[in-house]
């Protein structure tokens, strides 16, 4: 953990103590500032690979600048303005970098999603440890942290052009995860979100489409708090297609046909586990299963890139009246309880379930939408061991660029079908 930044309050206390000693008065006691709490995710910043990723991308200077700007905030309103400004600046800088705009800083390839992830954590760690003079209670700090999260993930900057003749596409990605297994990990879905945000593409039927994107955390509690619904609800009625995207299986894409209402408990980025029915608003009418409305037949038949694309119909269920899980290759049977959708029972399945459930509850049953699982992003064969490997290699970059290009092609096919 980096040393605690002195706040104006602490500096003033030290100055008063020094003045008292000069005047011969008893010294004023200077109580040490409390050590800032850090999350499990933020603590990983102290490892070598995250520090190298930040340095080699030029994103290592953002947190010190943010900390200095926070010192100037004299009210909660000023602090909120600062937080929103720096969060939006981080998102825009990451998008610009991924899309080739602005100066090239550092030697990491521009398509890399990891600078955004680690820089965001550096900012949240500064904000979590900030002790302003005006007094900030935990509710106020939580509100600031939420504002920083949303603005630095593109969740509050989704904007589509007005008028007819343009299709509107919404795509979401994820942060890196399983970082205790390999802290170097990148997530191609997050990289795709950065590469496609605000871009235009020509669909398979020749139409012009605008793509807007956002990135989500790999944390159970954020999903339970409604981050997916809060982000997607305002935009689903105005789009022509949406797709949630995440990293899935090695060597293949999957269009997940069915999503299940079950959390399987795999640890998230805070090393927390959650098992049980996916917690959603209005749980009384919650279905066990939701289905994709993406044109999976057209997507799987198209030549979109070097990885094969499958229509994945498999689920795991508890058949009606049974407590023994059964894998069903052709989808769920009537009355069954979900134990895994086609995309499993982790947060990739959950975002697909939440998004398609929201689609149905908004009465948008004809809106094409669902989940795309990308191949696992792999390092080169000589760089696979995290104990001895480097943070990047040519094969790693090629794999990520190919996955991004193929997601773009899949979206173009889907939007034009």
Would you give an account of this structure?
The termini are far apart. The longest helix is centred in the N-terminal third of the chain and has 23 residues, at 76-98. The chain is built from 13 helices and 14 strands. The protein has a seven-stranded mixed beta sheet, sandwiched between helices. A three-stranded antiparallel beta sheet has the order 12-11-13, with no helix packed on it. The protein is 38% helix and 16% strand. It is globular and about 60 Å long. With 417 residues, it is α/β, with parallel strands linked by helices. Helix 4 (62-71) packs antiparallel against helix 5 (76-98), helix 4 (62-71) packs parallel to helix 6 (114-129) and helix 5 (76-98) packs antiparallel against helix 6. The model is unreliable at 1-33 (pLDDT under 50). The chain has helices at residues 8-23, 40-43, 48-57, 62-71, 76-98, 114-129, 138-152, 188-196, 220-224, 227-232, 296-301, 347-361, 394-415; strands at residues 166-174, 200-202, 208-216, 241-247, 253-256, 258-260, 262-264, 275-277, 289-291, 309-312, 315-318, 326-328, 337-340, 369-374.
Entry summary:
The protein is α/β, with parallel strands linked by helices and 417 residues long. It contains 13 helices and 14 strands.
